[in-house]
Model the fold of this input.
Amino acid sequence: MVAPTAGPYTEWGTIGDQLSELLKLPVLVENDAAAAALGEFWSRRVSREQSFGCVYLSTGIGAGMVFGGALFRGASFDAGELGHLSIAYDGRPCPCGNQGCVERYASMTASVDTARAHPALAARLRLDGSVSSAYDTLARAAVSGDPDAFGVIEDAAGYLSVAVTSMVNLLDLGRIVLTGPGVAVAGSIYARRLRSHLARTAHARSRHEVQVELSAQPRNAAGIGAAALVVQASIAPGHTPGMR
Ligand SMILES: [Zn+2]
Done:
């Protein structure tokens, strides 16, 4: 089972216990970005020796890291909150309490907000409706050559690249997969920007390349990862805490 957002460990436990009781089945609870990372790790046959990370772009931004074949979960299942990595100490305030969180600049929500504040673009694309549908309209326009739409996505990719470089440098990652609904249409724009940014800024660039790949199933990555989680729990139970 994949929970849509992270929360205190006690809440995760409660969700798992309640579902397990209702379904009369064992239940696993995992963050969407972390599950996506595990799914990509398995489907790509990533070496256990490789430090592997996944960036999950959605209405927020998350990340998952797999080291030695196991998800890194942190002290309370809250590891990978890439969206709340600040890229500006006096930047936009975030509900999390910090300022300049990259999620406030590069998430699907942020890009839609930026596009809606651009009168000509908003009028041309008619960006009403949900964030998801407005973002898909914006992303399609960006890849179809609308210069204003491309500018919004390219800027978001630039902000995201700064944050991902920090993640790469902190963990010395060797391979990154971009996934989530935010890269389903315009993923090539994000991947190109991230590759060029890392080639100039990754601290370990003289020692190894940081591979940047796009998910083959970005909209379904979390669900596929949830299935991988169940498989891993059955063959490597030590890597999957919290089985209920
Ligand atoms: Zn934040």
